[in-house]
Amino acid sequence: MLSFRLTEGDVLILRQLARYRFLRSSHIAALVGRSLDRTNDRLCRLFHAGYVDRPRAQLDYYPTSGSAPMVYALGDLGAQLLSERGAEFANCEWSRKNREAGRPFIEHQLEIVEFHITLERSTRGRSDVRLIHPEEIIASSPERTRKKRNPFALRATISQSEHAHDIAVVPDLVFGLMFPDGSRRCFMVEIDRGTMPISRSDFRQTSFERKMQAYLTAYGQGQHTQQFGWKTFRVLVVTTDQQRARSMIETLQRLNVPQSPGPSLFFFALADELQRNDPLAHNWQDGGGRATRLS
């Protein structure tokens, strides 16, 4: 291979990998504005030079996925370079973390990335709405929030069967939409892959019902205002099929959490529908069964 020279375009690729953790080559091409062939060439060079990794777990599904675009992650040399340019990382052992990442975790992260990139595409070049990224939300939050290890985690104390449960819920993605009049709408996103039980008899065990109750309780206790200065927010649930969405909504409607918006806190959509439609123009279904749009 010819001698490798790092370019500013390569640094942009590394910054995107640091931001999203895992990306397919097709995602990277879209984010940096290059052709897929050119992106693949640079990724190959970055990989052999040690700046990026190819997580081993993805090899598990290549036999069934055919020629799916390769998944990449930031390597130790890439993290070191970004650190020298001012980036701050809590842990620079990226290559070790990449080796330990399992297939379900990688696939979940890629679905989160896919939704985020779809939002970017749907707002790019528009004058009537601007996407507010997670980094901007953190930067404008109170100092005590910015200092937290996970600033987007919401904590709620829930009483169940005469026992108090302290629960933390961490959204998969947080973003906002800014409008020309200065108003904004803020959202937390849950990408549901259909693997978590909707309900369990033991509240101590994880379930989507427990997660929804934690969001409702955190809202009722004003966590969003204390942490981010938000007046309100909504939770977007992207799930696998109509039956699961219906079961979630039925479970949600049985919950009664004081001082919360109730079922209207949640908007539901199916993953395959969002792949075909602009998420801002899509008719989401709120917890009360009403059609609504994000913008």
From TrEMBL:
InterPro entries for this protein: Replic_Relax, WH_DNA-bd_sf
Protein name: Replication-relaxation family protein
Organism encoding this protein: Bradyrhizobium barranii subsp. barranii
